[in-house]
């Protein structure tokens, strides 16, 4: 958490919070990110452990490309990926309670995120939640409120190139393909 808090302090010191949506939105974004990453840490730990164990057992692991479109995780897909870990965490917590009720308090920070991994996976993939966060100005970076100079220059060039006579655009594309 220290890097996040130091970044927050540096942004405030340099008076750059406006690019991040303002002090309140920046603070809320950091707080929500800390909560979410804390909840996701045991789930990532589960998957990392699973991949290491499968590798040690000589089983092949399939790494597929990330989906970067607006696809959402279905309940069925979440159940396929998180069902066993949810049952394992529930069993672990119940077993620990029968061994020592005090032990369950120590296991809550790891077991509860695993137990709730299904809804966490499904709801964190919802496009509507991302759009609501964007509408509220959360998780904003300065480049979203003002384009960097290189992007502005590219947009100017593209708009000007559309106004040029067609043969110039054809010459440009022929030149680019020969490079």
Please describe what this structure looks like:
The protein has 179 residues and is an all-alpha fold. It folds into three domains: 1-61 and 128-142, no CATH class; 73-125; 147-179, no CATH class. Helix content is 75%, strand content 0%. The chain contains nine helices and no strands. It is extended.
What would a concise description of this structure say?
The protein is an all-alpha fold and 179 residues long. The protein contains nine helices and no strands.
For this entry, what is the oligomeric state of its chains?
single chain
Give a quick account of the main beta sheet: strands, pairing sense, barrel closure.
Answer: none
Radius of gyration from the CA trace?
Answer: 24 Å
Strand content: under 5%
Determine the mean pLDDT.
86
Distance between the termini: 47 Å
Class based on secondary structure composition and strand pairing: mainly alpha
Give the number of domains.
3
Total of DSSP H or I helical runs spanning 4+ residues: 9
Number of strands: 0
pLDDT under 50 segments (min length 5)? none
Shape: extended
Give the proportion of residues in helices.
over 70%
SSE string, helices as H and strands as E: HHHHHHHHH
């Amino acid at each position: 958490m220290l890097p996040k808090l130091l970044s927050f302090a540096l942004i405030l010191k340099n008076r750059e919070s406006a690019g991040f949506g303002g002090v309140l939105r920046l603070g809320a974004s950091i707080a929500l990110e800390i909560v979410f990453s804390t909840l996701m840490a045991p789930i990532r730990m589960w998957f990392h452990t699973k991949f290491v164990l499968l590798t040690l057992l000589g089983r092949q692991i399939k790494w597929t490309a990330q989906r970067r479109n607006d696809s959402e995780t279905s309940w069925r897909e979440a159940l396929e990926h998180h069902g066993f870990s949810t049952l394992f965490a529930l069993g672990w917590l119940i077993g620990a309670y029968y061994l020592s009720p005090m032990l369950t308090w120590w296991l809550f920070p790891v077991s509860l995120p695993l137990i709730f991994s299904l809804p966490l996976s499904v709801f964190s993939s919802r496009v509507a939640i991302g759009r609501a966060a964007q509408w509220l100005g959360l998780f904003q970076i300065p480049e979203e409120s003002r384009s960097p100079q290189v992007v502005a220059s590219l947009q100017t060039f593209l708009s000007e190139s559309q106004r040029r006579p067609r043969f110039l655009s054809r010459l440009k594309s022929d030149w680019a393909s020969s490079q």
